[in-house]
Design brief:
The complex is a heterodimer. By secondary structure, chain A is an alpha+beta fold. Chain A has two domains: 207 residues, PmbA/TldD superfamily (PmbA/TldD fold), CATH 3.30.2290.10; 213 residues, no CATH class. Chain A has a six-stranded antiparallel beta sheet with strand order 3-2-1-4-5-6. A six-stranded mixed beta sheet of chain A has the order 16-15-12-7-21-18. The longest helix of chain B is centred in the first third of the chain and has 17 residues. In chain B, strands 9, 10, 17, 18, 19, 20, 21, 22, 23 and 26 form a ten-stranded mixed beta sheet that branches. In chain B, strands 1, 2, 3, 4, 5, 6, 7 and 8 form an eight-stranded mixed beta sheet that branches. Chain B has a six-stranded mixed beta sheet with strand order 13-12-11-16-25-24, with helices on one face. Chain B folds into two domains: 220 residues, PmbA/TldD superfamily (PmbA/TldD fold, 2-Layer Sandwich), CATH 3.30.2290; 252 residues, no CATH class. In chain B, strand 2 and strand 3 form a beta hairpin. The chains are: A alpha+beta, B alpha+beta. At the A-B interface, strand 1, strand 2, strand 3, helix 2 and helix 4 of A face strand 2, strand 3, helix 2, helix 3 and strand 18 of B.
């Protein structure tokens, strides 16, 4: 659907609702992906999805209905179901009317690439062919996925706000194996043309071949060098639990910590709508996005806060607008390695879970590349190991921060963390 | 819906694909959620769509659309064929043989949950939430009643045509206590079942609120875990997760083939291990069963249209066979699929998923207390907590939800922050006692993540209380 068609449909849904309050969110997604494993293509898909969520309220109660009948003639029936659901709902002491009228939304053109949105199959097949050919030429086995995706969203509120946004993503991630040796990469851009496919293939081939015959980590103290992917794997648990309400309830590590130091002076975390990964201009309530500093010089500056909690506690309503950058420094992973006397280089973590949410203690494993570093050089591959760490303690001991790369939800750097004692479990 | 499926199948026949199937679904989900004694969510989600899977010259093409607009369906058919052809010979798909399937299956559902009024559901959750929040030290509570009705029709160019009608039901309750700067939660749930409202009534949710409150408080005030090697006595709800991670995933055929290496991971189990790998002690008998009553993977047929089956994954401690789909069965040395092919919805390509499976228990008259009586120092664990396992599914760390220290055969004090670590064959090799089957409890999981693009799947696991010797326990401080 065009931008205007989507906004018109969302507006029509709000009008059909016939309730004092209503918010309609219409999304349209396309995902065209080629999946491969064992050096063969195992899936080739191109799927298309449209969905409407209509939330209605009467000033006291709320209800919502989601439907995939995206047809103007179906709206009356959807609205009728929503109203029927509202009648059976219960009064909500935290009821919030839709956001006030005249919201000003940023426009983020940088999130869209027309060629990527067209989802041509041939470029994906060629990219996957290159990965598989490189694996076969080097005696390796490759598995991964290559995607072109688009997403469009339109929102309308009964208070008169109406807006839309669209974004694309081009992604290639793959793993190569040789016996127990493996390496991995994941690259993601807004535009297909910006993916550095050839250089990533060469890097992963080299890393897989250098990862053979890994040995156990010897007990002792090691600095920890995290490649950007590994930094993101740890960092992503912060936004998951950064929440003003749970902080106020005393159930999170952030309880009573707003304005206080929780990490090292060199740790910063922020959302920038025009950052390395373009953000979303609004959330699904119709609140405009804004640039936010979450951590500055290790101090917790802000927490995401829902509208009710914000009103109750004199905070501003805040949310993470689908983009999150950790502050970077200078230097590649190789530059960071060259400064380390004795350390462990980690490419990627796996299966990270909470051990204790109250202290933000996590457990996880390494995978697809762990190396011993001595006197500024990689000297040998190491076997995967388990760790139990508190990321905020690690981010309190950052010796070096390198140049950011686009990983996860934004720009993420490689880092060097001060000595940790192996085994990394208590 | 059936006519739309048959129409799309006829289109595929006209185009001349080597194989094609068309899967249509209408799914209605209803969720009522309470948070802190307040109705947070009152919603209904209705999805409908159609997925088209075709095989051309050994390569898959898959496309899908939402809604049942004929133009969108025609476009989906055309896209599926087009991208299958674009694969250009890099696919090598060969499907295991299967007789043409036709039939109808309805899952057990005595009382349609969608006919129970929303007001009754809200009243039930309100009472449970109020019970939890009666003590001011409970700072957070959550309760949910979740129901889904899933109607599915699959037809194929071979002449298969199946229809299924399944209702899923899941009640959940959780209380979080905060005392002296610590926060601890207690969750009451036994997961989802293919069942109607009767599962809500049988689950005991009416008394869960008080139990969740009291046990969350007991937990937050409890001593922290001791460390060292000790014995574990684990209940069926806890073991449902341990077996899911350390038995279910490593015995999926696509992982053993390396197809999941990029994300969900590989397996320490090799293709040559079928029939020979010592996986656990002689007491370890895992039965896979996609006909299991109430099991959330008991769908009549899988998405390959292979009928639900029952087999030993592990017998007398020896690994028997992988769970497979028609595409992987021949590659792991089997002549037919055992029916483990499922997709999250019509937007997803169906992949190899875990079946329902459980640790077999006998009528032996053994109680959990009997098992505890032979433990000098150990921990009694109920429910599910923190969980993490390496991508080859061999080295793991688990928590739990409720813990008691056992000394000289008796439960002596509640504990908190307990975690244990082990390796898969060592752990199952240390199992030396299983309680009577009357203590069997199962958990229906709804959110097993796998695949790229990621999709979730459902399966039920269960066990009776079981005893494991000399496991490394560490504090989860």
């Amino acid at each position: 659907m065009t931008k205007q068609e989507m906004m018109d449909f969302a507006q029509a849904a709000v009008e059909a609702a016939g309730t004092p309050d209503a918010v309609a969110v219409l999304t349209e997604k396309r995902n065209a992906s080629v999946r491969f494993g064992q050096n063969r293509i195992t899936q080739n898909l191109d799927v298309f999805k449209r969905e409407l969520r209509l939330t209605v309220g009467d000033g006291e109660k709320q209800a919502s209905i989601t439907s995939q009948k995206i047809d103007i003639h179906a709206l009356a029936g959807i609205a009728e179901e929503a109203r029927a659901l509202l009648v059976t709902s219960a009064p909500d002491p935290e009821y919030m009317s839709p956001v006030a009228e005249n919201q000003k939304y940023p426009i983020i053109y940088q999130a869209w690439d027309e060629y990527t949105a067209e989802c041509h199959a041939t470029p994906r097949m060629k990219a996957v062919g290159k990965v598989i050919d490189a694996a076969e030429q080097n005696g390796l086995i490759a598995a991964g996925i290559c995607s072109m995706k688009s997403r469009k969203i339109a929102i309308a509120t009964s208070t008169g706000n109406i807006t839309s946004h669209r974004s694309t993503a081009a992604e290639l991630s793959f793993t190569m194996d040789k016996g127990l040796a493996s390496s991995y990469t994941e690259i993601s851009e807004t535009a297909w043309g910006d993916l550095a496919i050839d250089s990533e293939i060469a890097t992963v081939v080299d890393q897989t071949l250098s990862n053979e015959n890994a040995t156990e980590v010897e007990p002792g103290e090691y600095k920890i060098i995290l490649e950007p992917e590994a930094t993101w794997n740890l960092l992503m648990f912060l936004p998951w639990i950064m929440n003003a309400r749970s902080a106020d309830q005393g159930t999170s590590v952030f309880s009573g910590m707003e304005g206080k130091k929780m990490a090292g002076d060199n740790f910063g975390l922020s959302s920038s709508l025009l950052g390395g990964r373009p953000g979303a201009p609004f959330n699904e309530e119709g609140l405009p996005s804004e640039d936010v500093v979450w951590f500055e010089n290790g101090v917790l500056k802000n927490l995401p806060c829902d509208r009710f909690t914000a009103q109750k506690t004199n905070r501003s309503p805040l949310f993470i607008p689908n983009t999150l950058d950790m502050n970077g420094g200078e230097g590649s992973v190789q530059d960071l390695i060259s400064e380390v006397d004795k350390g462990i280089l980690i490419r990627r973590f796996w299966y990270i879970r909470f051990v204790d949410q109250k202290t933000l203690k996590l457990t996880g494993m390494t995978r697809d590349g762990v190396f011993l570093v001595e006197n500024g050089k990689i000297v040998k591959p190491l076997k995967d190991f388990r760790w139990n760490w508190r990321p905020l303690e690690l981010f309190s001991n950052l010796l070096q921060i390198g140049t950011c790369e686009r990983k996860g939800s934004g720009l993420i750097p490689p880092v060097v963390i001060d000595k940790q004692s192996f085994p990394f479990t208590d | 819906m059936k006519q739309l499926v048959q129409r799309a199948v006829e289109m595929l026949k006209g185009i001349g694909v080597d194989y094609g199937d068309v899967r249509a679904e209408v799914i209605k989900t209803e969720s009522t959620d309470f948070r802190n004694a307040r109705l947070e969510t009152c919603q209904t989600i209705e999805t409908e769509g159609l997925g088209v899977r075709v095989l051309v010259n050994g390569s898959w093409g898959f496309s899908a659309c939402t809604g049942f607009n004929k133009d969108d369906i025609d476009a989906a058919v055309a896209r599926a064929v087009s991208i299958a052809k674009a694969t250009g010979g890099r696919g090598k798909v060969e499907l295991a043989p299967l007789k043409v399937q036709q039939g109808i299956y309805s899952g057990p559902c005595r009382k349609n949950p969608f006919e129970v009024s929303r007001e009754d559901k809200i009243a039930l959750l309100q009472k449970a939430s109020d019970d939890m929040m009666k003590d001011s030290r409970i700072k957070s509570s959550y309760g949910q009643l979740w129901f889904e009705k899933r109607d599915r029709i699959i037809g194929s160019t071979r002449g298969d045509l199946i229809e299924t009608d399944l209702v899923f039901t899941q009640p959940t309750l959780m209380a979080t206590a905060v005392v002296n700067g610590d926060a601890q939660s207690r969750t009451f749930q036994e997961g989802a079942r293919i069942s109607g409202w009767e599962w809500v009534e049988e689950s005991g949710i009416a008394s869960w609120g008080e139990q969740a409150r009291d046990q969350a408080l007991m937990k937050v005030l409890a001593d922290e875990s001791p460390s060292g090697e000790m014995d574990l006595l684990l209940d069926g709800l806890h073991l449902s997760l341990t077996m899911h991670e350390s038995v279910g995933h490593p015995t999926e055929s696509d992982r053993a083939l390396g197809w999941e290496a990029n994300m969900a991971g590989r397996s320490f189990v090799q293709l040559s291990d079928q029939g020979s790998l010592k996986y656990g002690s002689n007491l370890v008998n895992f039965i896979a069963d996609n006909t299991m009553p109430f099991g959330v993977a008991s769908w009549g047929w899988d998405d390959d249209m292979v009928p639900g089956q029952k087999w030993y994954t592990i017998k007398n401690g020896i690994f028997q066979e992988f769970g497979s789909v028609r595409e992987t069965a021949l590659l792991v040395g089997k002549q037919t699929s055992n029916g483990c092919c499922r997709a999250m919805d019509t937007q997803c390509f169906p992949i190899n998923r875990q079946p329902n499976f459980y640790l077999e228990a006998q009528e032996n008259g053994v109680t959990p207390e009997d098992l505890a009586s032979d433990i000098k120092h150990g921990i009694w664990i109920e429910g599910r907590g923190s969980f993490s396992i390496d991508q080859r599914r061999e080295s793991f760390q688990f928590g739990g939800d409720l813990f008691w220290e056992i000394k000289n055969g008796k439960k002596v004090r509640p504990l908190k922050k307990v975690i244990y670590r082990s390796r898969t064959p060592k752990f199952w090799g240390s199992l030396d006692g299983i309680a009577d089957k009357k203590y069997f409890r199962s958990m229906g999981l709804l959110t097993c993540g796998k695949g790229e693009p990621g999709q979730s799947a459902r399966m039920t696991h269960g066990a009776s209380f079981s005893r494991f010797r000399d496991i490394e326990v560490g504090g989860g401080k």
